[in-house]
Amino acid sequence: MITGKTKIIGIFGDPVEHTLSPLIHNEAFQYLGLDYCYVPFHVKKEYLKDAVFAIKALNIKGVNITVPHKEVVIQYLDEVSEEAKYIGAVNTILNNEGTLKGFNTDSQGFVLSLKDEGILIKDKKFLVLGAGGAAKAVVYGVLKEGGEVYIYNRTLSKAWATKERFNNLGLIEVVNTIDKSVTERMQVIVNATSLGLKKDDPMPLSPELLLSEHIYCDIVYPETPLMKEAEKIGCKVIGGTGMLLWQAIAAFEIWTALQAPVEIMKKTLYKVLTK
Predict the structure, then answer these.
(1) Are 225 and 210 in contact (CB under 8 A)?
(2) Which domain holds residue 190?
(3) Does 76 fall in a domain?
(4) CATH number of the domain bearing residue 58
(5) Which of 3, 97, 122, 261 is most buried (CB neighbours < 10 A)?
(6) Per the annotation, where are the binding residues for shikimate?
(7) In what order do the strands lie in the sheet with 7-13?
(8) Which residues of the sequence carry a binding annotation for NADP(+) (predicted)?
(9) Strand order, beta sheet including 215-218
């Protein structure tokens, strides 16, 4: 029941049609008896500034930020958490009585999604594909947990900029090209690009470069073509659903200042994915 007292939470992105966030959060709000409602907003990049200002104008309690806005949105905020500032990307905004503060819960979400699968990050070599906002969150999380990062991006200048940003956190190197000599040295390969969101997207990596002993992670959900190929090869495959879940749990707690109903959110997500 939506009333004049209902607090609105949303998500800004392009595209947003695929998002499962409204299902996860609305189920959690209902379970705890909170007068909140989560809705998706399809925001194209030319309207992002207006959309962020509308958070204040419409008294929206908070929003998630997804591709392609995570980095650009920072310039329109009043405050940014230390972690989000370091990463250079925001995926969660809290409206605290007219002050907009940005957070990054993606990094925590990625780390916890691996821990959920019994995977320790420390001392493992990670090949990270991409250098956007999500990739930076992955890199930050891996380095903070003691892993090594080898980053590849089609625009090499962005890969080098990412290396410079995180150089003091641990071992991070730029990979100019990817071949078997690179992938066979890695334990974990992460697609941190948005490739796989659309049906006609190319694969971010040739399946021929994967080995059965690799752990293959994808931030895209529910399942991408490369995830399917990795499964055929015998890789341990971790999709973006775990990262989606754990970043959502952290965001929920930022907006409500309450402990998130983890099991309810988890059951809701996996129920939708197995339909």
Answers:
(1) no
(2) 107-239
(3) yes
(4) 3.40.50.10860
(5) 261
(6) 19-21, 66, 91, 106, 221, 247
(7) 36-42, 7-13, 62-65, 92-96, 99-103, 79-80
(8) 82, 130-134, 153-158, 219, 240
(9) 172-174, 148-152, 125-129, 188-191, 215-218, 236-238
| Cα 270 from Cα 94, distance rounded (Å) | 27
Which residue in the list 7, 61, 70, 122 is annotated as catalytic?
A: 70
CA distance linking residue 64 with residue 12, whole number of Å: 6
Strand pairing category for 172-174 and 148-152: parallel
pLDDT 10s digits, 15-64 = 999 899 999 999 999 999 999 999 999 999 999 999 999 999 999 999 99
Report residue 227 CA to chain centroid gap.
17
Whole-model pTM above 0.85? yes
- Mean pLDDT (the chain) is 96
What are the Cα distances from residue 273, in Å, to 110, 116, 263, 268? 19, 18, 15, 9
Residues 56 and 93 in one domain: yes
Is-catalytic flag, 70? yes
pLDDT value of residue 200: 87
